[in-house]
Every structure is written in C-alpha cells, then in structure tokens.
C-alpha cells in the first residue's frame, strides 16, 4: 500500500498593505511636505516676511569685484521645495547652488550689482559694498523693507541689518546664492585669462596657491591694491 500523501498546504495569502498616509490625513488627502534641507520650514512660510533680502559675495577676496544681489519674494508664494532648499551659500554645495540660482530668478524678483576693484581701492570695501547694495535695491524698483545680511543697514531705506541673516531671512539666503554663483562664474572666466593664481578653484580668495601666484607673477589688473600691499 503506497504511503499517504501529506495534506496540501493552503495557498499563501497576499500581504496586506496598509494605506500610505500623509502627515495631514488619509492617503490622497494631502501631499507630503517636502523635506527641510535648510533652515527655512515651508510649513512656516507665512511667518517669514515678504521683504527684499540683500547679501554680498567677495568682500574678503584679494581680487575681483564684490558682487551683490537683492531678492524679493513672498515666502508663502514660492514653491515649498525651493524655500526648503535655501540656505547660506557657503553651506550649499556648488552643484546645488548652480541648480538653485536659476530657480530663484524664475520665482523671485532679482537684481544684481557689483563694486569694482577700482571702487574698492578708492573708497574701501565697506563703502563699495553698500554702494552696490543700494544700486541693486534701486534696480528692483519695489517699495519694500530691505533686510541686509551683516551689521550695516542701507542708509535712507526702510529695513535693518540682520546678523547671520542668510540663515534667518529666506530672501537673504536666496541673494547669497545668486551672488555667489554669479561671482564664481566671473572669477573662473578671469582665471582663463590670468592663469597661475588658482582662481578657477579659489575664486580670488587668499589661499596658499593664490598667494604663491602673487609672489611669482605679481599682481594682475584685477587685484585689489588695498588688499595686497604685502606683494608690492
């Protein structure tokens, strides 16, 4: 007599999947909030002022201009993922800055200005920076308070200075990114005309490579005399 076959196993039941729920309620009732990469939470967008933010890049460089951007937008009206990505330009990786700058220009009012090497040497870096900021704000043509990163407010304009503003005011963070991308592009173009200073990497700041180039080659026409007196 053949051995009895073991009883057949019942077919496995498919796994039961719970519906995905967003923080706001049942599935499909609301879109999930974008992750907050920087200091600005899109959930608090209405709490940030609709102001002009102003910031500079290049103030401490040995050569080239100081570049300023003035940016206005209503934080509650720009894409949430863009607001979440804004931060001090020094904290944002270069590839991310390069992606953000055109998005900022697309969703905000943006104006830029620069204080030349000659202006910096003639009136000093602080005066050249404030002059460029005033011109950038004027180009926007908006009646809005002006929030400036640092210690100096713009004379004659409503607003104030905000120390550490590029992590407190989203428009200042946006201005820092726009100005940084623009100035870096300029310095890399100049690096092709004036090799030997490492501007393609240091964008004009006083690194060891840059100082070695100054010692070997002397100043270029773009070097600030007031910043490089040790290389006379």
Q: Residue ranges: pLDDT <50 for 5 or more in a row?
A: 6-31
**Number of helices, where a helix is a run of at least 4 consecutive DSSP H or I residues:** 7
Strand portion, in percent? Answer: 5-15%
Instruction: Name the assembly state.
Output: single chain
pLDDT averaged over residues:
89
Widest sheet, order of strands: 3-2-1-4-5
User: Helix share of residues?
Assistant: 25-40%
Shape annotation? globular
Structural class: alpha/beta
Spell out the helices and strands N to C: EEHHEHHEEHHH
Radius of gyration: 26 Å
How many individual β-strands? Answer: 5
What does the main sheet amount to?
5 strands, mixed
**Distance separating the two termini:** 110 Å
Key attributes of the depicted protein:
single chain, 232 residues, alpha/beta, 5-stranded mixed β-sheet, 7 helices, 5 strands
Description:
The chain is an alpha/beta fold and 232 residues long. It contains seven helices and five strands, in the order ββααβααββααα. The chain has helices at 80-85, 94-107, 117-123, 125-140, 170-193, 199-202, 208-217; strands spanning 52-57, 66-72, 109-115, 146-149, 159-162. A five-stranded mixed β-sheet has the order 3-2-1-4-5. α2 crosses α5 and α3 crosses α4. The model is unreliable at 6-31 (pLDDT under 50).
